[in-house]
Amino acid sequence: MATIFKRILDGEIPADVVYEDDDCLAFRDINPAAPTHILVIPRKEIARVDAAEDGDEALLGHLLRVAGLVARQEGLSGFRLVINNGASAGQTVFHLHVHVIGGRSLAWPPG
Ligand code: AMP
Question: pTM for the full model?
Answer without folding.
Answer: 0.98
